[in-house]
Amino acid sequence: MVNIEHLQTVRVPASNVYEALTTADGLSEIWTNELIIHNQIGLINEFRFGSHDITKMRIEELIANKKVVWQCIDSDPEWIGTYISFDIQEKNGKSFITLRHTDWREVTPFYRSCNYNWAIFLYSLKSYCEDGEGLPYHKRKF
């Protein structure tokens, strides 16, 4: 199995980061504004990227201000069965977010594209948390 890992530092408390990753307001500014978000383990979050591109993530773990874990249950076939986690550690008023996208079957062109786009996701998260405006899908140039 192959994994993607990125680390981002954000100059806000962990509670701000956790809220951004677990609410419709936050995720619509970070990732896509076409979404259905829940904040309960076992429920399914839905993210749309255009009219026919939907990603469904089951919430596997929520530890307030520390961790969010999703399992992809519907999306591009390469994503199905993979896990996306956000580990948040706070120190001196800063948050250190480790994003992991684990259990890829192999390195493919799509894997490489997603690796890049997860870095953009973390940049968007940082911008949203620090400046109040992220860079979601509908504002990006591809």
From TrEMBL:
Transmembrane segments: none annotated. Residues 12-129 form the Activator of Hsp90 ATPase homologue 1/2-like C-terminal domain. It comes from the Bacteria. It holds the Pfam family AHSA1. Gene3D superfamilies: 3.30.530.20. Belongs to the AHA1 family. This is SRPBCC domain-containing protein. It comes from Paenibacillus nanensis. The lineage of its organism: Bacteria, Bacillati, Bacillota, Bacilli, Bacillales.
